[in-house]
Amino acid sequence: MKKIKYLIAISAMIFATSCGDKYLDTENLYGKSLETYYSTPTDIDEAMAGVYNAIYTANVHSNEAMAANLMSDMMLGGGGPDDITAKWADNFEDPAEDTYKDMWSQSYNGIARANAIIEKTAEADFSKYFGSPEEAQKFKDQSIGEALFMRAFFYFRLAKFFGGVPMIVAIDDPKDVGRSTYTETFAQIASDLKLAIETLPEDSFSSIPTSSYGHANKWIAQAYLGRVFLFYTGYMTNMEGQATSTLPLVDGGALTGADVAAYLDDCISRSGYALASDFRNLWPYSYVNQSNGATVLPWAETEGLSWVGQDGHSPTFGTGNFESMFVQRYSFGDWGWSNGNIYTNRFCLFAGMRDNSLVPFGQGWGWCTVNPKLWNSWDIDDPRREGSIIEVGNADQGTGGYAGDKGDHETGFFNKKYTAIQHPENGGETKGMFVQLYGWGNADMQLMHAQDFIFMRFADVLLMHSEITETATGLNAVRDRAGLDAVSYSLNAIKEERLHEFAFEGLRWFDLVRWGDVETAFDYTLNVRNSGVDATYKANYRSEIKGLVPIPETEIRLANGVYDQNPGW
């Protein structure tokens, strides 16, 4: 219930700074004054909620997870005949010109709000609100460090999708600036993360209260520094053809692989995060069997699965989740709110089976159907195969009653990690899993998906460490959890492991880009069904776009020639 209240609160807090109709402009929506605000801990907490609010986007195709999955080689567009935006993203098209506008605008909203916290919190004196100077300083350090991390998070989101972008890192910075270079953009991201790591308290995960779950901490910043390092050095080397082994900083320095590996070592040894005992227990389908036994999901019952939950180490429901590090928190929607469906996990809705309301898998819109190549090439003894993919027409998986020919790009496979989950409530009406758990009054199938989206897991820290150090320890820890034999380190082993460990988690596309594999990843055709008609599918990736999406044309026009469109768009 704390999670529900938290998300409802931030949904109302789009305050202080928000992009208006002018180019990268900001306006004060609620009369909050920069001169008087940010002076109490309550002010800072409210302002920080506004920063996190900017992760959410109104248009679902502008959602980071949705966009990244649609562009990857392991998911197809899907949906119905009228779901053209899914097919545009899947096929690297943008006839609407503003497909990713919400991602752009919301990222700059978050950056502006983070800038205000960074500057104003540094000037504030919170001592009278705490029992000791040490407590006041710790609050200040957490707030500044968290805002630095979030600014890096938003700039990284922009850079991954759009490339070099305008840099605005202070309240009074001019807004009519051109795009920074790719290297300049990543230098700011890396510098923010490094300073966040140096500023944030060193509390281990188990000592952080559940009420703070979903907020950034030192260990999350370390993990993201690893991700940024690998993406930047990979992109520059493989997409730009400039061999690069270091991550630049704004002061002219740089971080080496050894530097970043040391941060990851620290995260591994001291953070308190750990792998879940069973990969499948990370996902909500592992909880369903606890309510209704084998009649709901025989496979989960037989496998003895038990959901770890999604509220940290001491969740309201579940056994305790020590693996999920940074997540996008979701709750329920309400059509009476402005953009009332953006705080429910629409990836679960849109990627659910189209027009099939089964138990335990509810119905959705059928986007992001799964490439059968993944299922067919995956080791049948790897439990992550059935733990990640729904195979239709399989009674043991709860899909024996599946009715096909409801949508496009049907392959017979859907993702199992993020999908609609439902079951009978006390033997009666079938309702969404989270509606039942939290006692939510609205059972609308479009508004019931309170599953958090995981941006960073501890498993990724282990695999990134192996990739940077070219050692097999982290790689084999993840394989051991899946019951697989140890292997020697190789980049190919890392590629295969990341594919299987993080399928449908929004990472595959960016891995393909940074490895330089995106050019060959789509060299295949598939037989699919389009609304009951046999068809052939092929995605048309174009090398000239260099793994980037188009900057919204609205933003380019408002910029009055300050910068140009990305190549190929």
TrEMBL record:
<feature type="domain" description="SusD-like N-terminal">
    <location>
        <begin position="22"/>
        <end position="230"/>
    </location>
</feature>
<dbReference type="InterPro" id="IPR011990">
    <property type="entry name" value="TPR-like_helical_dom_sf"/>
</dbReference>
<dbReference type="Pfam" id="PF14322">
    <property type="entry name" value="SusD-like_3"/>
</dbReference>
<dbReference type="InterPro" id="IPR033985">
    <property type="entry name" value="SusD-like_N"/>
</dbReference>
<protein>
    <submittedName>
        <fullName>SusD family protein</fullName>
    </submittedName>
</protein>
<keyword id="KW-0732">Signal</keyword>
<keyword id="KW-0998">Cell outer membrane</keyword>
<feature type="domain" description="RagB/SusD">
    <location>
        <begin position="381"/>
        <end position="569"/>
    </location>
</feature>
<keyword id="KW-0472">Membrane</keyword>
<comment type="similarity">
    <text>Belongs to the SusD family.</text>
</comment>
<dbReference type="InterPro" id="IPR012944">
    <property type="entry name" value="SusD_RagB_dom"/>
</dbReference>
<dbReference type="GO" id="GO:0009279">
    <property type="term" value="C:cell outer membrane"/>
</dbReference>
<dbReference type="Pfam" id="PF07980">
    <property type="entry name" value="SusD_RagB"/>
</dbReference>
